[in-house]
Specification:
single chain, alpha+beta, Creatine Amidinohydrolase, five-stranded antiparallel sheet, 4 helices, 15 strands, about 25% strand
C-alpha cells in the first residue's frame, strides 16, 4: 500500500482546496429549503465551484452525472440530482461534494434538515457528526489507522445504529480516492501507522436501522436495505507532526 506524504507545497494547495469547499458547503447548507429539487442543489453547487476557478471532482467521475451527490432520507450516498425529486418539510438530505484546486482534491459531506424534522432524525444527524470527532481524536502521528475506525465504531455502538460497511473513507490528494481505505467499523488489527503529512477523508455513514445497504438500478444510489434514515458526515483532514489533526474542510 503506497500512502502519499504531502510536501509543504502540497499541503498548502490542499488547504486552499478544502477552504473553498467549506465555503461551498456553507452556501448550500444555508440554501436548503422545502420545494427545492435535488437538481437545484447540484446546479448551485457546480456554479459555486466553477465561480471559484475550481473543477467539481464528482462530475463525470466514473460516469457520475452530477457535481453534488444529493441523498435524501434512506439514500445513504451517491444520490443522483434530479429536477423531479423535490425536498419536503421533514426530510433529511446529505450533500457530498468535492472540488479540484490546482490539481488537488478536497472532499466532504454534511447531512441537513429540510425545515423542521423529528427528534429521532436530528439525533441521527448529531450522533453521526459526533462519531467523526470521536474518530479523529485518534488521528495522530504515531497512532494507527484503525484506531480511528475503532473509535468511530465504539462511539456509535451504544446507540444501536447500523454502520455502513460497504463504503469507507479514503486517502486523498492528487486523486479523489487514494490509499488507504478508512473503515468506520471495528477492526481486529491496528492497520498502518499514521504519519505527519498524510491526508485522509474520514466519513462515517450511519443508518438509523440495520447496517445493510442496496444499490438502486441506476448503479449509483445506495439506500438502506430496511428503508431507515441514513446520515453522512465527512471532512478532509491532515495528520500533523504532533497533537490533533487539522480538519481542512471545517469552515
Amino acid at each position: 500500500m503506497a500512502v502519499s506524504i504531502k510536501s509543504e507545497r502540497e499541503i498548502a494547495l490542499m488547504r486552499e482546496s478544502s477552504r473553498l469547499l467549506g465555503i461551498v458547503h456553507r452556501e448550500l447548507g444555508e440554501a436548503i429549503r422545502p420545494g427545492m429539487s435535488t437538481m437545484d442543489i447540484d446546479v448551485m453547487g457546480e456554479n459555486l465551484i466553477r465561480k471559484m476557478g475550481c473543477i467539481p471532482n464528482f462530475k463525470n467521475y466514473n460516469g457520475f452525472p452530477g457535481s453534488i451527490c444529493v441523498s435524501v432520507n434512506d439514500e445513504v450516498v451517491h444520490g443522483i440530482p434530479d429536477k423531479t425529486h423535490i425536498l419536503k418539510e421533514g426530510d433529511i438530505v446529505s450533500l457530498d461534494a468535492g472540488l479540484i484546486y490546482k490539481g488537488y482534491h478536497s472532499d466532504d459531506a454534511r447531512t441537513h434538515a429540510v425545515g423542521q424534522i423529528n427528534k429521532e432524525a436530528q439525533k441521527l444527524i448529531d450522533i453521526t457528526r459526533e462519531s467523526f470527532f470521536a474518530g479523529i481524536k485518534m488521528a495522530k502521528s504515531g497512532n494507527h489507522l484503525y484506531d480511528i475506525s475503532n473509535a468511530i465504531a465504539s462511539f456509535i455502538k451504544p446507540y444501536g445504529y447500523g454502520i455502513v460497511r460497504e463504503l469507507v473513507g479514503h486517502g486523498i490528494g492528487t486523486s479523489l480516492h487514494e490509499d488507504p481505505q478508512v473503515p468506520n467499523f471495528g477492526q481486529r488489527k491496528r492497520g498502518l501507522k499514521l504519519r505527519a503529512g498524510m491526508t485522509l477523508a474520514i466519513e462515517p455513514m450511519i443508518n438509523m436501522g440495520r447496517a445493510d445497504v442496496e444499490w438502486l438500478a441506476d448503479n449509483w444510489t445506495v439506500v438502506t436495505a430496511d428503508g431507515s434514515l441514513s446520515a453522512h458526515y465527512e471532512n478532509t483532514i491532515l495528520i500533523m507532526p504532533s497533537g490533533e489533526p487539522d480538519i481542512l474542510t471545517l469552515y
